[in-house]
Design a protein that fits this description.
alpha/beta, seven-stranded mixed β-sheet, binds pyridoxal-5'-phosphate
Length: 381
């Protein structure tokens, strides 16, 4: 089976992990701080906190921005459920902004309309989570220009977009947002097994996230209420979680990050080969954001909706592990229970009916890609 995505682990990655395993620190230790520095450097961000997974990164980003009961968070329905669930963890309400039907990213026109309506009703969101779908950056400048005058915070969910760039800067540099989150799940751009990160240019926010990832506890003398106690003393100053990443995982992440540019080059090559093949097929690739470069976490096509099911089955039967990204979040039973229904976000629902993700990962060979293309040609012949 050719999967739609998979990790690439080489000998250096293995050595990096086994070296930590033989040392003194297994859970959070020196590799964690090193991974944070390397990520901040690569993404041209001032600061970075790494956590146990990308969902934890979103949760803590929301908390750091003060999201809580009575607040609203808006995100895109074409995403993994974590982009919305992070609000629910904070006790906040979720609403969605419909997507651009051509690329599945949050649609700036729909956002502008929805903001105008919400402002007149006095229920503006506190936070918007913009998802760089498949690694193709959202039009951040336009989104920022809509949100900033209203004091609305912007989180970039860049789980797909490590290595992508927008207007000449890497995703994560944060010119247009408050915080950016990453995921290091094995199908993502780099992996640490499980892992995630929050990037940002406000060190106060990132320090808050570091405290919240370990129970809200600090030992930093500068932050303690009292310095009367002995060396054992620590304070829990807020209600936090155990969202720590291990040094084993951080070591793998550091080793993987050295390879990220090679990964992106290969993903872009694969995308280009698909682009050529799609020209003679009834398959429409995403229309990509101008002045941006996708990291191609996914290679998503739109196919005729009435053929999507049979095409999916045909490719699966031929050992090609295509996927569907994503079932619109608002149609999930949990969100239906909250009052959402089919028809609420028609562009997202239409996008879902025609979308299919083809295999793309650094170790996909040209031969395997040709097999995928050959199967598509055979299906439509
Ligand atoms: C993978 C993913 C997440 C969650 O990341 P985990 O590391 O699996 O918790 C969040 N948002 C999007 C868009 C993702 O693809």
């Amino acid at each position: 089976m050719i999967p739609y995505g998979r990790q690439s682990i080489n000998d250096e990655d293995v050595t990096a992990v086994t070296e930590v395993l033989a040392g003194s620190w297994l859970t959070q230790g020196p590799k964690v701080a090193e991974f944070e520095q390397q990520l901040a450097h690569r993404c041209q961000s001032q600061d970075c906190a790494v956590v146990s997974n990308g969902t934890a990164a979103l949760h803590l980003a929301c908390l750091a921005l003060g999201l809580g009961t009575g607040d609203w968070l808006w995100t895109s329905p074409i995403s993994f459920v974590a982009s919305a669930n992070c609000a629910r963890y904070c006790g906040a309400s979720v609403d969605f902004v419909d997507v651009d039907p051509n690329n599945g990213n949050l649609c700036p026109e729909r956002l502008a309309e929805k903001l105008q309506l919400a402002e007149s009703q006095g229920r503006l969101p506190k936070v918007v989570v913009a998802v760089h779908f498949g690694g193709n950056p959202c039009d951040l400048k336009i989104i920022h220009e809509l949100l900033n005058p209203l004091g609305i915070k912007l989180i970039e969910d860049a789980s797909h977009a490590l290595g992508a760039d927008y207007h000449g800067d890497p995703i994560g540099a944060g010119q247009y947002s408050d915080l950016t989150t990453l995921s290091f799940h094995p199908v993502k751009i780099i992996t640490s097994g499980e892992g995630g990160a929050v990037l940002g240019n406000d060190s106060v926010l990132i320090e808050r996230i570091r405290q919240l990832r370990t129970h809200g506890i600090t030992k930093d003398p500068a932050l303690l209420d009292t310095t009367e106690e002995g060396g054992w003393y620590y304070e829990q100053q807020a209600l936090g979680w155990n969202y720590r990443i291990t040094d084993l995982q951080a070591a793998l992440g550091i080793s993987q990050l050295k390879r990220v540019d090679d990964f992106i080059v290969r993903r872009r090559q694969i995308a280009q080969r698909y682009d050529v093949a799609m020209q003679s097929l009834p398959c429409q690739p995403l229309s990509l954001t101008t002045e941006a470069n996708s990291s191609f976490h996914l290679y998503v096509i739109q196919v005729p909706a009435d053929q999507r099911r049979s095409l999916y089955d045909y490719l699966q039967d031929n050992a090609i592990g295509v996927q569907v990204h994503y079932i619109p979040i608002h149609t999930q039973p949990y969100y239906r229970q909250l009052g959402f229904k089919l028809g609420d976000f028609p562009q997202a629902e239409a996008f879902y009916r025609g979308c299919l993700s083809l295999p793309v990962f650094p170790e996909l060979t040209d031969e395997d890609q040709d097999k995928v293309i050959g199967c598509l040609q055979a299906f439509f012949a």
